[in-house]
Amino acid sequence: MESNTIVITQSRMAGWLMFNRFYKMDEKVDLKDSNRKVFIFKDSAPLRKAMEQYNEFKHVVDNIY
To answer: CA 41, CA 28: separation in Å to the nearest integer?
Structure first.
């Protein structure tokens, strides 16, 4: 069974994706830690590319906050 969604556990990564115009499908409480949330996005090649870009620019994004 192929999944068409991807679960993001980092709020900054989710923010980056939304900043880059990716729509968050859902937000739920993390089953492993009720103090955290997970963010669900539709999986796609452009989304994966934006995730790679986040990893390249993470040090810049982290210094903004």
So the answer is: 12
